[in-house]
Amino acid sequence: MPEGMGLISYPLYNTKKMLLNKIFPNTYEFIDVQCYQKNRYMLFISDVHLDSVHCDRDKLKQHLDLALERNAPVFIFGDLLDLMQGKYDPRSNKADLNPKYNAGKYIDEVIADVVEFLTPYKDVIAFYSSGNHETSVEKRIEYGIVDKICYKLDISKGNYSGYIYCRMFPSVEDKGSNRPLIIAYHHGYGAGNSPVTRDVIQTNRKAVYLPDANIVISGHTHDRWIVPITRQRISRYKEYVDQQWHIKTGTYLNQPQEFNGYVVEKGMSPKVGAGIWMHYTFTKQGLLYNFQFAD
Questions:
Q1: Could you give all domains of the chain from N- to C-terminal order, each with its CATH number?
Q2: Contact 154/140 with Cβ under 8 angstroms?
Q3: pLDDT by residue (tens digit) across 221-231?
Q4: Which end of the chain, N or C, is less packed with Cβ atoms under 10 Å?
């Protein structure tokens, strides 16, 4: 998998291809330089289910086109693939099988189509980690689907959970002013159906065991929200208050209104919403960032 070459010799954000350094077994490093008073963006997405007939490919293309325009790295936190129409899958429904995958080598057809769709965006897709839809099929067929896609697109492959360690510099010369921004990610867990809490209850649990993260991202449940948790902190230099941002990325599935089938039998409510943009810049006050729904 691609790895960068350090700050001065390889300013990662400003190159054509988004590259990450793997600095620990579960941590990738992203570096941006010369971002003083510049508008920078990242796009966080998950639960795309690109091979599903219900995936809103037009919306996904719109977001990826904008990422290209903004030169914004795209982070995919699991379930890029659906993979539910394979043989012996209890969730399969022939009515939901895309005709282009109706072949003896179902998995290979999906991989080829997904790679073809994403190839125009390979220079901004920085990262792809597995979700439960990928891992459940990979375990059954003993085949590295995510590895193959990452290899073909030349992008970094993450674990089911881990960290993105971001270092932003106002300029190349200002080596001492980097502000690490730590993103903890986890695709998600559980049944994926929390109609009352919409999985927001997990923010309080994660805030306890992920104290070093500035941003905590998950997907899986197809909900979408942005929740800040205010914290009282202390450092060697001062007492201060900050916020830990909890991000739940939505889904690109445009599920039809139905009254029969797997989703209905499991009591799952309709979900809408897609990815989330992070905008950041350096000012005299330091690194500033905020979040916006990608619509």
A1: 12-293 (3.60.21)
A2: no
A3: 999 999 999 99
A4: C
